[in-house]
Sequence to fold (567 residues):
Amino acid sequence: MTLSLLNRKLRRAFGGRVTAGAEDGCIVVRGALSDWGDVIRACQMCAKPHSKRHVVNDIAFTGGADAPMRLPAVCDASLDGLRPDVLIIGGGVSGASIARELTRWKLDVILVDKEADLALGASGRNDGEIHPGIDLGRGSLKHKYIRRGNAMYPRLCRELDVPFTRPGQYVCFRQGFLRPAVAAYCLRRRFIDGISDTRIVSGKKLHELAPGLNPDFRFAISNPSSGCVCPYGLTIAFAENAVRNGARVSLETAVTGMAAAGGRITSVTTNRGTLYPRLVINAAGVFAEEIAKMAGDRFYSIHPRRGTNSILDRKAGAYFDAIASVKLLQGRRTHTKGGGVLHTVDDNLLVGPNAVETWEKENYATDPESIEAVFKKQRITMPGLSKSDIITYFTGVRAATFEEDFIIERGRKTANLIHCAGIQSPGLTTAPAVAQDVAEMAVDILREGGPVLKNPAFDPVRRGIPALRKMDDGARGALIRQNPDYGVVVCRCEEISRGEILDALRAPICVPTLDGVKKRVRPGMGRCQGGFCSPLVTEIIAEFLGTDAADVKKSSSASPVVSGRTK
Ligand SMILES: Cc1cc2nc3c(=O)[nH]c(=O)nc-3n(C[C@H](O)[C@H](O)[C@H](O)COP(=O)(O)OP(=O)(O)OC[C@H]3O[C@@H](n4cnc5c(N)ncnc54)[C@H](O)[C@@H]3O)c2cc1C
Fold:
């Protein structure tokens, strides 16, 4: 569409309050609007799916204001003056998987994240589904990476000692008359998209395979290659393996500015000093656009999109061991890869997510309307779902571009920068494949300054922490004899022992907070949500650190658990 035609459309829709202009190979949308839905609509009108000519949103939004980016409370000079080969900004699954890939080479790699742990952005707030590749437009980067990423998971999770299952996914239909059209769609996916295992199953077969689903379903698309992983467990494993292979990880480290000259980043400012990296990788999730701006290389915009999930007790998980969702016939395209009911690798049920546009990048609050909406839809999938089984919920924020595709490319104006941005769903699925290509791109760029050698000592294997809960009596007994701390159960809901907690604290990336331990070995993840075990875990952390319990934090240096002794 020509610019004048586009502006005519915008004028008709918004009465002249927004205009679009072509600048530096992008479409820049300007004006002022008070409704966030209108901002999204205006930019979407200008966007062409998967186009390299991205939409940059410069519309002044007058209907609300986003809070400033959350910054760490610490301030020191621990990174000051460092000159790493590669600085990775963002400790989500993108940054962590890229860090690991880069350690296959003899490179000095530093990964920084502003939060006190890894995976506190979208990578710790998603469904953990390893998608089979549904509804992805051909020609998109999502389409390019999804099958490759999906296929890498079994070996990757073996190497990193991370639980991975392939429970399979069912997309269920109540309208029998749709079957011929859906069968044709499946054929297209098999022969054009290369998803060879996709097939139609009858309603009868579906109810045999996955009892508990709505008896009204007439048929379903079955995708056996759908998998499940613990997304934050995987991110931590990537980062730990990277550290074992020589990378450094600096948490509570926010990038707050950059200096650039002659089309290159010359320095990067953080709350822990100024670094002078040869190459920067932007894997900053919802803040990727801000990083691009700091580097003088902003050619896309991120619009945050919230998604809320409920986590149900394991007793609900015992009744269903797959992934399923109902296909509703709705006119408008939704921006979630489905949402549904999912049996997690830890045997809970996950119900959700929805997809709600927002201007707030870090508002993780969970509202009752989202829970209600998600339950209403998924009760069609599984009528027996009960809200009384909810043990907790969470909200994640997707980092979508207006083209609804990933941006994986070298800086357009800044030569020593790679963007790994717009990584919304299925970014967990694609991460291992994307990481290979980003690392290759990084090595090619660094080779412009001299040879880059392979790291002969690279070891892809990481040993995770033994999970007592998953062992039979014989294995438990052997472990307890070897390490009696494994015989002291601290979290009864999840059967987590003192030994597992201490091993989490001794891991290559030690995060000695209640949440850090919870993410690694799960005390507090069960029905009581830490009501009983939190004081015991606090004491174990204090003992490990040689401090008082009052010094132990919940999640970051600014979150005390207790304020002092009462008796
Ligand atoms: C509700 C929901 C469900 C999803 N479900 C699935 C699914 O089932 N399967 C799937 O494949 N994908 C799913 N996704 C998508 C997937 O979660 C993301 O694509 C993926 O986690 C993105 O990872 P990332 O590392 O790029 O970003 P993030 O995980 O957001 O990491 C970015 C990191 O950058 C850090 N950062 C930002 N700015 C700075 C700065 N200035 N300085 C230092 N650090 C900074 C942040 O703290 C953050 O940790 C889902 C997403 C959501 C929200």
In short: Residues 89-95, 112-115, 120-123, 125-129, 131, 254-255, 283-285, 287, 307, 353, 396-398, 423-429 surround flavin-adenine dinucleotide (CB under 6 Å). The first helix runs from residue 3 to 14.
